């Protein structure tokens, strides 16, 4: 019997509503599979916590989380707390402190009606973005000089280490080799004359160890265009933290929106817990109304189970999502349906075991 | 009689082919309008020049250009010269040295068949991106430490000055006021904790002087999604150098591709020449074959004439492009036609005076 201990951080807004559905799915699986058991421990961190206690998580929060097998996070951010505090002190902090340097974001069209693109079928949009998740543009380094004066100048420094750049690129090559897929690096060497020139060098260098992997190298602007114009070009994409952020939202746009976008923040060495989260935000405008779309959060559970080595369940969840998407009426309003968050979770579980 | 002196930098690859068509259009206008005269001076700068002389332009190149009314540029970049040299030493250099701090990039659907998006009409995709064009992420500041060692680390610093940030944001507010349009700022304050927090502050601050302008503020990832999912949200967008680069390529994607994307690099004070260019690259794969699409380059001429105060001609060109696009057969192969670069230029001129 395998026991997985999961830390829940529902966070803000619709976070708790969608996480509840993911947990429901995990509990249903536990009930059906006598070989798996889950424990759940909830942490009340987020913007409400911040407004009460002046901090997004406990001082020893990272310590409190470090022995869990996984973190399942809902959403972070709420009006009243500046975003650069709420996000950098919770979500981004966990990614960094736990060296979750791989962010896996599938761009997979689950149903042809979901794409806003003309004449694209499921096979045309089916790739994986591997986003650097620990450093780069998100290093948080910078300075703010002469505040309020005419000569005021603000610096934001991207930090690209050999270690950080090599390990994400190597991870991507390994995946490409394992899955026999092409690998596309996305960078911007023609304008970012230090960081991205370095990135390109490392991509080429490490490529020498993988002569079996067919590679492409795109500028981020061109890649953004092709995500829309010719998504069929891509199989596995590896890119920096910021570019990954932007590209995966384009990925979400072409596959049906943020209600379906998931991300796994992985520490491949399993030295620290990995974190699974829907990519969407806390959606203050609909929070508490029970109409948040839980599908991304459920897809996150699929990624979590894959990560646990329970790929059969991971796959089952994904194919059940495909099934679920065939019946628009059953879905939440953002998908054109009339279902509530809970309804969607219930129907999902029914279908999973049907 | 108004005399405009234009510096031509055809540059690399298809650059000279498309610039030739733009010049043809200008000459035809000169012939038809006895109030306007153009002079053209060609500069042979680019990658070929670099391979011969070890530099992308003459040492005193900026000096040579500084008295022209406008620069008309084709494309820069060619295999054999690293992109960060070819672009930073010519295109980006001119933008900076001539303080062309405003980059105007229309995202306008000229014909509903051109968009890859389902059910979007011309009125749904019709906005202007105002991109900061002189500093920010493109400052070129950085460092490369411990080269080749395990502790190697590469820094890329975005530089956001009060002056640089204020002037682009103010320019955008002025445009929004003049045109009675909404203004959307795109930034990324939740992750880029110095530069983009500053950007957001300046956007809000200056907004106080424009209570008549309705504003929105989007994260760059969300904006990228909405460019695809709901482009009708946007009227005028103001954003940083890098984000503008990425967003306008998404803009190109949703309006028919790079063959139709134009950009005006403006020095609003007219202290220095402004520069007009198709946004596409040098396309080495088709260079010399006479099948490059000249429409973006012709649209650049329209932007140039607007800038010269010859808006009637600017408008006439744009509506002629609309007309031209109605007959696919007449267009170049990238648009599904059989025309050559020259054919398209010829037909364009016929239509312009029809
Ligand atoms: C919320 C924000 C800090 C985060 C990011 O930029 O990484 C989000 O957009 C994401 O993609 O996970
Ligand atoms: C060629 C490149 C340096 C340039 C840029 O990044 O600005 C181009 O992509 C553009 O958009 O004009």
Automatic annotation (TrEMBL), chains A, B:
Entry's family note: Belongs to the isocitrate and isopropylmalate dehydrogenases family.
Designated name of the protein: D-malate dehydrogenase (decarboxylating)
Signal peptide range: none
Family matches, as Pfam families: Iso_dh
Keywords: Lyase, Manganese, Metal-binding, NAD, Oxidoreductase
E.C. number(s) listed in UniProt: 1.1.1.83
Cofactor field: Mn(2+); Mg(2+)
Catalytic activity as recorded in UniProt: (R)-malate + NAD(+) = pyruvate + CO2 + NADH
PANTHER family in the cross-refs: D-MALATE DEHYDROGENASE [DECARBOXYLATING]
GO MF: D-malate dehydrogenase (decarboxylating) (NAD+) activity; tartrate decarboxylase activity; tartrate dehydrogenase activity
SMART domains: Iso_dh (SM01329)
Location of the Isopropylmalate dehydrogenase-like domain: 5-348
PROSITE patterns: IDH_IMDH (PS00470)
Provenance organism: Virgibacillus alimentarius
InterPro entries attached to this UniProt entry: ICDH/IPMDH, IsoCit/isopropylmalate_DH_CS, IsoPropMal-DH-like_dom, TTC_DH
Top-level taxon in the UniProt lineage: Bacteria
Methyltransferase listed as a keyword: no
UniProt keyword annotation of Oxidoreductase present: yes
